[in-house]
Amino acid sequence: MAVDEALIAEQQEQRKLWVETPLRESYPLSQAAGCRVFLKLENLQPSGSFKSRGIGNYILRRLEELPGNDAVQPHIFSSSGGNAGLAAVHASRTLGLPCTVVVPLSTKPLMITMLKAAGAYEVVQHGSTWRDADAYLRKEVMTKAGKAAIYAPPFDHPDIWAGNSTVIPEIIAQLDGGALDVIICSVGGGGLFNGISQGLDALSVDSTTVLAMETEGAASLNASVKAGKLVTLPGITSQATSLGAVTVTQRTFDYAQRSNVRSVVLPDAEAAMGCWRLADDERIMVEMACGVNVALCYDGRLERVLGRTVRPDEKIVIILCGGSNVTFEMLATWRKEFGFVEERRESKNRDVQVPSDITAPKVH
């Protein structure tokens, strides 16, 4: 096969595993935040999250390493709180391969059902955290597959970061080459944050502020930044289980030392508020690990985090990283449980009103 033909074939294979997602300006969120807010809709990836990029790229690279005369069918094995597992299952099924996923006991029945419906060969629950599930996968489950086994980590590998980095040239192109002032992304283990940092470096973009978002009870990056070294949390207490990595990667910690990066932590209540207000303002449902990003647009949070007034023409991109692990019932429950956050709204002394202002819970 000619070089050009091989490149075209690879690009066609990649398009099956992940897609270029839309970048859409949100007028309600822009109105609420006082600047131009764009949503990068990674919730529209085939697996429902950005994980399709990194996991898809990782699996393709591992398959390239196999000997051409190997008659054993590869079997993909993934450890995940849910979204990485979905990405691994989708990629494997697209490539005609079986995929077994091990998830921690904290993974909700909804995600288990989704993994099975997506075509998982087997879904196993084990351990209280992702780290426990991962150890069980590698020490117990994978050994039964012998040399057919291919391990797919959820976030800690350069090929995963390289896959995730593809989101940055898309964003820059979709902004028509215009300045990207701030990018907001969630941090679990750090795979997305690493990819974003790598993508910005590749394009020599060093003026963009990166807000690395976590929730209280899953803030392993923030704990590490404060300690000046990698910190392992004793466990995960946040309801944003997709952020449930007790330790971030070393590369994540290194990137977080940069002057343009800010580690930000919000409580579950505000992450949940981001979910229900996004649903009202944009008719998009996302899980709490994504809602923590959206929450910054409301009630002056973005300006408080940045420590300055935002400009009306400033371009802010929020990575809507995933929306698989959410239902209407969950949104209603969060709104009932965490509606008290609406009591703390702060006026910005201007006439601002968006749909979610009208539908806000009445708390007494």
UniProtKB/TrEMBL annotation:
Q: Which GO molecular function annotations are given, in alphabetical order?
A: L-serine ammonia-lyase activity; pyridoxal phosphate binding; threonine deaminase activity
Annotated GO biological processes are: gluconeogenesis; isoleucine biosynthetic process; L-serine catabolic process; L-threonine catabolic process
Q: Which InterPro entries match?
A: Ser/Thr_Dehydratase, Ser/Thr_deHydtase_PyrdxlP-BS, TrpB-like_PALP, TrpB-like_PALP_sf
Instruction: Name the cofactor(s).
Output: pyridoxal 5'-phosphate
Look at the named UniProt entry and state the broad enzyme category this protein falls under. lyase
Its localization reads: Cytoplasm
Q: Where is the Tryptophan synthase beta chain-like PALP domain?
A: 20-322
- Spell out the reaction equation it catalyses: L-serine = pyruvate + NH4(+)
What is one cellular component GO term in this UniProt entry? cytoplasm
- Signal peptide stretch: none
Q: In which pathway does it act?
A: Carbohydrate biosynthesis; gluconeogenesis
Q: One Pfam family, short name please?
A: PALP
Q: Which keywords fit this entry according to its UniProt record? A: Cytoplasm, Gluconeogenesis, Lyase, Pyridoxal phosphate
The record's EC number reads 4.3.1.17
- Tell me the protein family, please: Belongs to the serine/threonine dehydratase family.
Its name, as the record gives it, is L-serine ammonia-lyase
| Species of provenance | Melanomma pulvis-pyrius CBS 109.77
